[in-house]
Design brief:
The complex is a heterodimer of chains A (150) and B (615).
Chain A lengths: L1 H17 E2 L11 E12 L6 E5 L2 E3 L4 E11 L3 E8 L5 E4 L3 E3 L6 E11 L8 E9 L2 E11 L3
Parallel strand pairs in A: 4-11
Antiparallel strand pairs in A: 2-3, 2-5, 5-9, 6-7, 6-8, 6-10, 10-11
Chain B lengths: L1 H20 L5 E13 L4 E11 L2 E11 L4 E12 L2 E11 L4 E7 L3 E6 L19 H5 L3 E11 L4 E10 L2 E10 L10 E10 L3 E12 L3 E11 L11 E14 L2 E10 L3 E12 L3 E11 L6 E11 L5 E9 L3 E12 L4 E13 L6 E14 L3 E12 L4 E12 L2 E3 L4 E16 L2 E16 L2 E4 L2 E14 L3 E17 L2 E16 L2 E19 L2 E10 L4 E12 L4 E10 L4 E13 L2 E8 L4 E8 L1
Antiparallel strand pairs in B: 1-2, 1-8, 2-3, 3-4, 4-5, 5-6, 6-7, 8-9, 9-10, 11-12, 12-13, 13-14, 14-15, 15-16, 16-17, 17-18, 18-19, 19-20, 20-21, 21-22, 22-23, 23-24, 24-26, 25-26, 26-27, 27-29, 28-29, 29-30, 30-31, 31-32, 32-33, 33-34, 34-35, 35-36, 36-37, 37-38
The chains are: A mainly beta (150), B mainly beta (615).
């Protein structure tokens, strides 16, 4: 039993050398992209909005797809932008800046989406990329496939 | 007694010192940032406004994601690489800090990629798409995660944090000035490691340590020490302490030639050692020579020398020869040959072995010679197999020969695979000769089965059945006739709710001369299944014996997701014959990426357990 007591006392002296109660965790980052989801549409009839038919594969018959984003801890005005790239790596659609929170309130959660409609030409089939920017800085990207057949 | 205690303290201090000494690892990646988080559950790192050294560049980025296990590194958002006056900017950098190679991508009017790294090196190929499936929120949902502003990754993929705060189930806990965050769930690394020490009132002090050395394609060596100190226990009458040492070393002298040494030692005077040399010739011929010494407790040791050879002759088949000799005139020998012919329809296997083994401590030896021939022929319709076994006990003068023949139809579909028919017959002949007495016996077994696919009779109702009959004949005149059928039906009551019924009748008749014996058993069970969503699943079953009009057993299993990644799982067993609950098992499980934390209550053993189980 004395051995166990010795071990306990040694631990009591050693542990304070490494443990500290004064270390505070850093503050959480703002404008945090919490979700970036692709799907066929967004259900806006209920709050919060959510994506229906989540997928990364679409067919030309679908006609369109959405890229839905959820951003947390927004305090300042932010500019959102979606760029859709074709299989040839060139921009097929650029939303430009969409300004959010211009009155600079604290928003715990911001949800937004952009709809991409397919062109009827067959060359849209292939591997696409959507890149999402906050304040002109890449915040996330997703790859998806558009196929000719269902 | 006192010596034992002092020894245990000395061992502990020794192991601790070795642990501290082995902590000096070489780092492959060091990062500082405004916010860095490491998930112990998943072995992931997320960073914001991060700065790190990449090759000869000072790099910075807005976001950083690392999957430590897969060694995937991704920096994105305002990525900048600086070296003297050179500044390279981009949107995304996939990189490997070990080889200092990377791909920098820019998302402008077009997507452009730039190779980063030394001239002449191959471009980096890494698929980082798996990093898209998680983010900081996922890390903060971990059972255990750390946050701070400085992290290092060692070449053994250990993660170290400085001035780091621990979060347990989302709640902030104590901080550490320096801490190895990745813990024990990692691959073994070179050097000495002190695996664990613990104390229990029933086992005393137990400690484990190991030494591992690995030089790729040269040397691989592992030595483990297990020590138990029982002198600290009250009223313990067995040995005061016990030591187990296991060692295994392989030295690759050439790519096709290696030497190995393995040994075990136990302080109760039990040990063995094995030395082996192994040589390959073009992956076709393998030769292994071994010398082994075994020393059992309180018995004379045995020293064996052996030679084993395997020859892969391609279309000529595979040969294997083994010969072993022990210095007290014990012998083991084995030969085998296998091949396939006619587009693998016909397979042949021949084997023979001889053993001459001492009977205990006496001067007598058992001498047994066996031979076995196995041949099988498979077609689309039927399969035919024959086997001949010969066992000759040279010491007991007993010879057993056993030829057997198996003929079967392959499962035969009928009515567009609605029904499946299966028939086979197995004939076995036994001939035992003991001195001048010869005993003959034979048996024949014929099995017939017919089963259906599940048939949807209504939208919400489906059923299937199977029928089986078996006739077993013996030379002694005993006959067994067995038969039975099983019906299984399922009714969907609502979405995710099912009721299943299962009825089984089995009958067996034994006839021998005028004597007829028979048994019939029936079993009816009902199962109620529930799975309305991904978060809730369960079933309860009830078994009933219609013959005796008696309820037998009931089992219930239910599991549901609670909050975060916590899950409740319960099992209950009620015995209607004993009229009591036989067992209840309750589990509270936290799914945490690489592992599960389980709190378990078992009523049968009256145990409460806490387990940390790797996934």
């Amino acid at each position: 039993m004395k051995t166990v007591l010795k071990l306990f006392l040694i631990s009591c002296f050693l542990l304070p050398a490494c443990i500290s109660f004064s270390i505070r965790p850093p503050d959480l980052p703002d404008n945090l992209l919490e979700e970036m989801t692709l799907g066929k549409s967004v259900n806006v009839s209920k709050d919060p909005w959510y994506v229906t038919d989540i997928s990364s594969s679409f067919s030309l018959q679908d006609g369109s797809l959405v890229c839905f984003v959820k951003i947390r801890y927004v305090e300042q005005e932010i500019r959102l932008r979606w760029k859709w790239y074709s299989p040839q790596n060139s921009v097929a659609k650029d939303t430009g800046d969409v300004i959010v929170n211009s009155d600079r309130q604290y928003l715990d959660e911001v949800t937004a989406y952009d709809t991409f409609r397919f062109k009827p030409e067959s060359e849209t089939a292939g591997k696409w990329i959507v890149a999402f920017f906050i304040d002109n800085t890449l915040a996330g990207k997703r790859a998806f496939v558009i196929s000719k057949e269902e | 007694m006192k010596t034992g205690r002092n020894l245990s303290i000395l061992l502990l201090v020794f192991f601790l010192l070795c642990g501290i000494m082995s902590a000096a690892d070489k780092m492959i990646f060091q990062v500082e940032g405004e916010y860095l988080a490491y998930s112990y559950d998943h072995n992931w790192i997320y960073g914001e406004h991060s700065r790190f050294v990449f090759g000869s560049y000072q790099a910075s980025c807005l976001h950083l994601k690392i999957d430590v296990t897969s060694r995937l590194f991704l920096a994105y958002g305002d990525v900048t690489l600086r070296k003297n006056d050179e500044v390279i900017a981009g949107d995304e950098l996939v990189f490997d800090p070990v080889t200092n190679r990377g791909i920098l991508t820019r998302y402008g009017d077009t997507i452009t990629e730039q190779k980063i790294g030394d001239e002449g090196t191959d471009p980096l190929t890494a698929d980082v798409s798996s990093l898209e499936s998680w983010d900081l929120t996922e890390i903060r949902r971990s059972l255990l995660y750390f946050s701070g502003q400085s992290l290092d990754i060692s070449e053994d993929l250990d993660v170290y944090g400085y001035n780091i705060a621990i979060h347990v189930e989302g709640m902030e806990s104590v901080g550490f000035k320096k801490l190895k965050l990745s813990g024990v769930m990692k691959k073994r690394r070179t050097g000495f490691s002190f695996d664990r020490v613990w104390y229990t009132r029933s086992e005393g002090i137990i400690s484990r340590a190991s030494f591992f050395y690995n030089k790729e394609k040269k040397v691989n060596s592992l030595t483990r020490l297990h020590y138990e100190e029982r002198s600290v226990l009250k009223d313990y009458e067995g040995p005061q302490r016990q030591v187990d040492v296991m060692t295994s070393t392989t030295v690759m002298l050439k790519e096709d030639f290696q030497l190995g040494l393995a040994g075990n030692y136990n302080s109760s005077n039990l040990w063995n050692v094995n030395l082996r040399a192994n040589k390959n010739w073009k992956q076709k011929v393998n030769l292994e020579a071994t010398i082994t010494h075994n020393k059992p407790i309180n018995l004379t040791g045995e020293t064996w020398v052996g030679l084993r050879s395997q020859i892969n002759g391609g279309k000529w088949g595979t040969f294997s020869i083994l010969g072993k000799y022990e210095f007290q005139d014990q012998v083991l020998a084995n030969f085998s040959y296998g091949n396939t012919f006619f587009k693998q329809k016909l397979s042949l296997m021949l084997s023979s072995s001889y053993s001459q083994i001492k009977l205990g401590q006496s001067s007598d030896y058992s001498k047994i010679l066996t031979a076995n021939v196995n041949m099988s022929y498979n077609t689309k319709v039927f399969n035919l197999a024959t086997n001949y076994l010969l066992n000759y006990d040279l010491f007991g003068h007993q010879l057993l020969s056993q030829p057997q023949l198996r003929l079967g139809l392959n499962p035969f579909p009928l009515y567009a695979e609605l029904l499946t028919l299966n028939v086979y017959n197995l004939f076995i002949l036994n001939r035992v000769r003991m001195d001048d007495i010869i005993h003959h016996a034979f048996s024949n077994n014929t099995v017939f089965s017919l089963s259906t696919m599940p048939v949807n009779l209504l939208d919400s109702f489906k059923m299937n059945f199977s029928l089986q009959a078996e006739q077993f004949l013996e030379r002694e005149g005993r006959n067994f006739t067995s038969g039975g059928f099983i019906i299984n039906a399922q009714q969907r009551i609502a979405k995710g709710i099912f009721l299943e019924g299962f009825y089984n009748v089995q009958s067996r008749r034994k006839t021998q001369g005028w004597l007829i014996e028979g048994t019939t058993s029936q079993d009816l069970s009902l199962v109620f299944r529930l799975k309305p969503s991904e978060n809730l699943a369960g079933w309860t079953s009830l078994s009933y014996d219609p013959k005796n009009n008696q309820l037998r057993q009931s089992f219930t299993d239910i599991s549901f997701r609670m909050f975060k990644n916590w899950e409740f799982h319960g099992l209950l067993n009620y015995d209607f014959l004993l009229k009591k609950i036989s067992n209840i098992d309750l589990y509270l499980i936290r799914h945490a990426g690489r592992f599960q934390l389980r709190f378990i209550w078992r009523s049968l053993a009256r145990q409460f357990l806490v387990e940390l189980v790797p996934q």
